Amino acid sequence: MPKRDGSLKAREFVYFCEDQILTQLPAAIPQPERRVRWTMLQMHFGNPHVHFELQPQMGRGVVEAGLHFEGPVEANDAWVELLAANAADLLGELGPDWELEEWTSTWRRLHHPFPFDRLTTELAHEVAGEVARAMTVLHPLIEEGAAAIAVATPAPAAGRHGGSGRGRRWHRRARR
Q: What is the pTM of this model?
């Protein structure tokens, strides 16, 4: 329930966004599996390592939304290579606010930050609209890559961390 000033608590914001995203997905896209962890929403189409995530970060004043790759580094890199091979079309549809990033030494993401002063229903509509559009645009690629990447990706070597860094156009997250 919004406060008098129209602001929402972080958890209310997440649930409001979840409802909005689900109502905006076209019928041709299956309903994603969903998980809410306090103030983080994750949605995926069968592989929890490849999921859409939405999280308001109150201390930073930003809602992070995006497609995350949080499996073995080899699989994550394969996903990014698939995205990079289709980057012109994808980013043309998604817009310039989406960025492909080497998020940690093993995780990757295509994300869109939304700065805010307050979490509001207006912001929730904007974020949910962008996430639903991203899910719609990226779902065919996720379906295409799901089997190919699972088959082509070797099991991670024991103790192996980090990517190869072979000329990828990723942006490393600023360390705090």
A: 0.82
> Which residues, at least 6 apart from 157, have a Cβ–Cβ distance to it below 8 Å?
none
CB–CB of 43/34 below 8 Å?
yes
What fold, for 10-153? Yope Regulator; Chain: A, (3.30.1460)
Quickly list DSSP for 82-106. HHHHTHHHHHHHH-TT-EEEE-SSS
Mean pLDDT calculated for residue range 5-12: 88
Q: How do residues 71-89 score in pLDDT, each as one tens digit?
A: 999 999 999 999 999 988 9
CA distance linking residue 143 with residue 38, whole number of Å: 28
Question: In this structure, how many other beta carbons lie within 10 angstroms of the beta carbon of residue 24?
Answer: 15
Q: Where are the domains of the chain?
A: 10-153
For residue 73, the one-letter residue type is V
